[in-house]
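Researcher: Please predict.
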Amino acid sequence: MGAAEIDPGELARLREEADRVLRLNEVEDGEVYYHMPSCHHYPSLFAWDSCFHAVAMTRLDPEKAARELETLLAQVEEDGRLPHEVLLPNRYSHRWMRGLQTRLVRWEYDGRGASFMIDPPVFGYAAERVFRATGDLNWLVRIWGNLARAMDYLFRDRVLGGDGLICVFHPWETGTDMSPQCFQLLGIDGRKGLTDSWRALVKPTSLYVFNYRRGWDPATLFEAGEFVLRDLTVNALAARSCMSLSRLALDLGLGDQAERYASLARGLAKALDELCWDEEEGLYFPLAGNIEPVPVKVPTAASLLPAFTGLGEEGKARRVVEEHLLNPREFWQECGVPFNPHHLLESVPGWRERHLWSGHCVWTNFCWMLCLGLVERGYPEEARILAGRVIRMVLREGFFEFYDSRTGEGRRISDFCWPALALDMAATCFPEEWESSLQEYPGGGR
């Protein structure tokens, strides 16, 4: 398996296009600074999106990356919850279509336009990346309070049932919307046509209403049991972010806090290994239900993430990588890592292609997370191959919300910011070519 070759000129073109898309989606109003995921369809601030934007921006403009995270963390609610979305005003937010969308799902937002939902907690890891890029201790001091409160909220209010895992109460809180791992709780078979399509359309909205009427109170929603999922993406990223908070606490001289967050991270990783690991399959699966949760034995790319927390058992991580991630029948595809394994999508109903994360799709954020994990787990050559595939796909197709896992064709929303994560993949996996591109093609980016 030979490593991919990337030319510095290609990386310069990638930086130039990333800069164009990020500038297009940039919002600056006084101290408020962030990037919309795409001004064409998502003209507001989204939590895990802004974390991805900040990581990408560390490769273009670290100071602006710091401003984005500071704006994001300023949205933390009094109880510590960091909202999935906040409808901050911008030049695109008053478009009639966006207004219609938010009115149709008005149960999702509070009086200031903040979502009641959460996002997968990338914020701790993103904050560490930004701090390492800037070295700005004053910035770290400013954000620390909200950063810690956002993490503490998850362990105080969302770890329910006594098993140590974080619960979510809506499929969109997983970050992976209509993931097949949510089908069971939504009453979707996954193989039927009209019935499944209708439930996939209606059930998320009915869940908004159900949760809203119960005040989005985690304990109440857990007891009700309408939709309770110990999601892998949320828990794996929480473990990773906790380790980042532990290291940042040391930078601040907060030794007790450093040990506390490291202990929380280890506890999450242990719970994932003990409760979500399937020895026969060699994969992790989420748990559905409240009192006696059961595994949802549907593999997706989220089933790979616990191996990349930097924690957990080494033997399990190697099985995940070698039996599944690098398996060309499943996840090792020419267009990057598909969210749904190739062999399970040979014949699926057409409705699944119309719902995000259900069909043939490659998402650059998952490719980025798995690429970093390959590097850290001792697979640098494979990481270079994955990075090269993603970089070339993005250069060929442009910056899209996601890509067709069969052809690499860009899908749905254009001028989408997530593919800017390919910058971090490039700098990580092709450091010499990256440095050469900065020197030989200084115009390729900010």
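Model: DSSP finds 16 helices and eleven strands in the chain.
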